[in-house]
Amino acid sequence: MNQFKNVALAGGGSIGVAFALQFARAGKSVRIFEQSPERCALIPGEIDARLKMLSAAGLLEGEPEVVAARIEVTPELQSAVANCDLVVECVPEVLDIKRELFAQLERHVAPEVPLCSASSALPASSFCSELATRQRCLIAHPGNPPYLIPIVELVPAPFTDAAVVQRCSAYFQQVGMSPIVVQREVEGFVFNRLQGALLREAYCLVRDGVASVEDVDKVVRNGLGLRWSVIGPFETADLNTRGGIAAHARKLGPAYERMGKERGQNDPWTDELVANVVAQRRAMLPLDQWEARVEWRDQQLMQLARMRKEHAANDASS
Ligand SMILES: NC(=O)c1ccc[n+]([C@@H]2O[C@H](COP(=O)([O-])OP(=O)(O)OC[C@H]3O[C@@H](n4cnc5c(N)ncnc54)[C@H](O)[C@@H]3O)[C@@H](O)[C@H]2O)c1
């Protein structure tokens, strides 16, 4: 049931092409439905160029031409979706376009096939509610480009069948992606909510003359982002403070609450909320393994440091 062979992508822009590469490099057959003749003509060249790039970086199994041969581009929806096991819609973020396309997909795609949308912000309930087979519809929001950023957020609408969500999760794992299931529809899902929180504060810091644009980016590039490529914000807090995240919340919670209030935000880390986070962290990492995990983090950061050093040396010698 969780094996699949054929993927149909509707829309061959940035995300459609990038998803095609990811599915094809994992051995799947891909058809891209693209309505613009200009885009149809450009897509094969884009695919070849990116596959060669991935191959040169040692990130492609098999020859680029072999992987490229798994991808077809067509201006006809019906031939794109024939015999497909999964559809991922990647058309522009415009409600009417998505609504119309999903109505067409419903007519032409066998009812057991999941219909995903790469939508960044529009939830599935805003354009699938009227469909007779709406239980197979959900969001599969990737990072850009999905052939280099593995996260994909699966966001079911209230009417989406949980079994379909699980099946899609297995499909995306099968092609080397890292799916999470967002528990309910919220604007921006998780990826863009986190990104938005940082970006909103970054704008405030520049507005208030605290830091330049370059320096904000530097703090992320040489600080937060470096760490976040290895561990997330919860694990960071957990590993940065002896006693773990419970101690972190005790020591730094009040300062973070003051910073939030300065921005008109009032979301205190209540005892109950902290207890929930602590319980989840301790289930993943008992405190007696804390030291070992801190060492693991440092090993990971050392690998990154080595890579950055080599990269800087290569840049200097070119
Ligand atoms: N670009 C990103 O960073 C990013 C990241 C994650 C998700 N997304 C989401 O993915 C979706 C696609 O974004 P994109 O950046 O690839 O857009 P894009 O504009 O690059 O590509 C959209 C493509 O869809 C085609 N198209 C338009 N209407 C169509 C139709 N009815 N049928 C078939 N093809 C049609 C267009 O010709 C175009 O080639 C959007 O919902 C977007 O929000 C984008």
From TrEMBL:
Gene3D superfamilies: N-(1-d-carboxylethyl)-l-norvaline Dehydrogenase, domain 2, NAD(P)-binding Rossmann-like Domain. Its EC number is 1.1.1.35. One of its GO terms (molecular function) is (3S)-3-hydroxyacyl-CoA dehydrogenase (NAD+) activity. Pfam families: 3HCDH, 3HCDH_N. SUPFAM superfamilies: 6-phosphogluconate dehydrogenase C-terminal domain-like, NAD(P)-binding Rossmann-fold domains. Residues 6-184 form the 3-hydroxyacyl-CoA dehydrogenase NAD binding domain. GO terms for biological process: fatty acid metabolic process. InterPro entries: 3-OHacyl-CoA_DH_CS, 3-OHacyl-CoA_DH_NAD-bd, 3HC_DH_C, 6-PGluconate_DH-like_C_sf, 6PGD_dom2, NAD(P)-bd_dom_sf. It comes from the Bacteria. Coiled coil: none annotated. Keywords: Oxidoreductase. Residues 188-276 form the 3-hydroxyacyl-CoA dehydrogenase C-terminal domain. Belongs to the 3-hydroxyacyl-CoA dehydrogenase family. This is 3-hydroxyacyl-CoA dehydrogenase. The lineage of its organism: Bacteria, Pseudomonadati, Pseudomonadota, Betaproteobacteria, Burkholderiales.
